[in-house]
């Protein structure tokens, strides 16, 4: 099989705000961001409520 790539802040499921790595298939690489997202530091600083939801839900 091929290796999959999932971006945690860009889930494929429309009802989720963040992807859930424990639900990804075995051959999947999970990354916190990509070139289409803000840097991890910028995301951390831009929205405290969203950051707290991330750690509560994931």
Automatic annotation (TrEMBL):
It is found in: Cytoplasm. The keyword Cytoplasm applies. Pfam families: Glyco_hydro_77 (PF02446). It catalyses: Transfers a segment of a (1->4)-alpha-D-glucan to a new position in an acceptor, which may be glucose or a (1->4)-alpha-D-glucan. It comes from the Eukaryota. GO terms for biological process: carbohydrate metabolic process. Its EC number is 2.4.1.25. SUPFAM superfamilies: (Trans)glycosidases. GO terms for molecular function: 4-alpha-glucanotransferase activity. Keywords: Carbohydrate metabolism, Cytoplasm, Glycosyltransferase, Transferase. GO terms for cellular component: cytoplasm. The keyword Cytoplasm applies. Belongs to the disproportionating enzyme family. This is 4-alpha-glucanotransferase. It comes from Medicago truncatula var. truncatula.
